[in-house]
Amino acid sequence: ASWGLFGQGGSGGVGGTGGAGSAFGVAGGSGGHGGVGGGGWLGGVGGVGGSGGHGGLGGAAMAGFTAAGGTGGAGGAAVGVSGGAGGNGGGGGAAGTVTTISVGAGAGPNGVAVNPGGNVYVTNTNGTVSVIDPTTNTVTGSPIPVGGAPEGVAVNPGGNVYVANFNSNTVSVIDPTTNTVTGSPIPVGNGPVGVAVNPGGNVYVTNLNGSTVSVIDPTTNTVTGSPIPVGGFPFGVAVNPGGDVYVANQFSATVSVIDPTTNTITGSPIPVGNGPVGVAVSPVTGDVYVTSQFSGTVSVIDPTTNTVTGSPIPVGAFPFGVAVSPITGAIYVTNLNDGTMSVINPTTNTVTATITVGNNPQGIAVDPTTGAVYVANSGSHTVSVISG
After folding, report:
1. What's the CA gap between 343 and 153, in Å, rounded?
2. pTM for the model
3. What is the pLDDT of residue 243?
4. Any stretches that span the bilayer, and where are they (predicted)?
C-alpha cells in the first residue's frame, strides 16, 4: 500500500484465489482476504480495501465436470485513516453429480455402451439388454432378450449394437431404430465376453474359454476367417484409431496386438499386471490403458512402441472396466470389490479422485457428446451416471 500526501491512501491488494476442491463433489476453498488499504497521511482518508479473492474451483478431481468457483467478495469499507480489509472470496463451485438408475431386480448389469447421439445399452446377466434414454436417464421400453449371460457390448459406426452372449457362444445384433434383435445369433468361439468395433466396422470378439478372437464382417454379420489365437483367457478388447486391436489376456498377464489388415498377431505379447481384464484406447493420445485385477493397477502402453510406459498406476480393489473420455482424455476405472470408480489424470497418470458408485461395478462407457460416464453395477442391479 502507498501513502497519499494530505490525501487518500492507496488501495489494498487483491485477495488470493481459493484452492481447488480436493475430491469429487467437494467445493474449492474460499479466496483470501484483499489487502488492507493504505493509511491516509496527516488526516487524509484511508485507502479502499482490496477486492476479495475469487473462490476456488469446485472438485477439480473430476475431469470434465469442474464447476466454476464463486465470485470474490467486495472490498471492505474504509475505516478511519486505514482502508478496510477486502471481502472473502466466494466459495468454490460444487462438482458433478452421481445419478442411480435401476435396471430391475436380478438383472445383474455388467456391460455398457453408448450409441453416439442415441441411447445407452446395458447387458444384463439374466439374458437381456436394457436401454437407457440419456436425456432423462431412465430405462426406456422393455428389456431386449438376447443370448445367455451377455457380457460385452459395442456399437458400430452405423449404430448397430453387438452383444457377446457368454453362455450361448453367440453374438446378437440389435437394430437401434427398433431396439429389437435383427437376424439370427452369430456363432463365434467358446465363451465370448469382450466386443469392439474398428473404424472400418469389423467386429472383434474375445472368446474367453477358447483363447481366441473372432472377427465379424458387418456387411454380412457372419464370422470371417479363422479364429485368431491370442493369450490365455482373453477378456477385454479395444481398437485404436488406426485399427490396431488390443486384447487383454487374463490368464497370461499380457496384451496381444492384432494387425487389422491381416487379422494376425503382430509383435510379442506385452507383459502387464496380474490378471488383466479391461482395456481402452485414449482417442486423445492413443495411449492404451489396461486394468489388472490381481495387481490392483492400471498399466499404460505406448502405441508407438507397444511397450508399457512408466510405473503401474495403483487404483482400487479388483479394477475391472476402463474407459477414456474423448473430450478431456480423463481415464475412468471401475473397482469391482470396493464399489468405486477411480479417475486418472492423463497428464500425470495419477489418480485424482475416487467416486462411490454401486456394488460390484464392471462395465463403463463415456458419452462422447456430453462426457457423462455410465457404470454398470452388477451387485446393485443399477447403472450409475456421473455428470456435470
Report:
1. 22
2. 0.82
3. 95
4. none
